[in-house]
């Protein structure tokens, strides 16, 4: 009988630990996004920039238009209350580009899961980190961005 109670107690403790782990995972909400463009030049000095005002977007696109030269200028996106734009600069390790697989948000931290790949339109030896403009289809206010490979 004592052995049975001991196993029952272990099982109960195990269930509680799994429940708390599942709750912490569930609190991380996935965010729908659009990968707008990968720029081969720097748009910000920091590792990420959250664009939450039209003024910030205009400044970013001033740099883009300057780097574009005499070519046709890209239209400037409108910043609304329903979405957030962000620029990330993931480090390249073994490839020349990345694709964004998933974006999630928890406790003022934005988690961006990326996957490396060799982009045929970029020189294979080029390891310059792209500046990626993402459009998050939800308004968020992240204090920290973590890129996961």
Using only C-alpha atoms, the radius of gyration works out to 21 Å
Provide a count of the helices.
2
Which strand order do you get reading across the main beta sheet?
1-5-6-8
Mean pLDDT metric: 83
- SS-based class: alpha+beta
Description:
The chain folds into 2 domains: 1-27; 31-148, no CATH class. It is built from 2 helices and 8 strands, in the order αβββαβββββ. The protein has helices at residues 2-26, 54-68, and strands at residues 29-30, 33-39, 48-51, 84-88, 97-106, 109-117, 131-136, 144-148. The radius of gyration is 21 Å and the shape is globular.
Per-chain topology:
Elements: H1 2-26, E1 29-30, E2 33-39, E3 48-51, H2 54-68, E4 84-88, E5 97-106, E6 109-117, E7 131-136, E8 144-148
Parallel strand pairs: 6-8
Antiparallel strand pairs: 1-5, 2-7, 3-4, 4-7, 5-6
Please outline what is shown here.
The chain is of the alpha+beta class and 149 residues long. The protein is 27% helix and 32% strand.
Task: Give short descriptive properties of this protein.
149 residues, 2 domains, 4-stranded mixed sheet, 4-stranded antiparallel sheet, alpha+beta, 8 strands
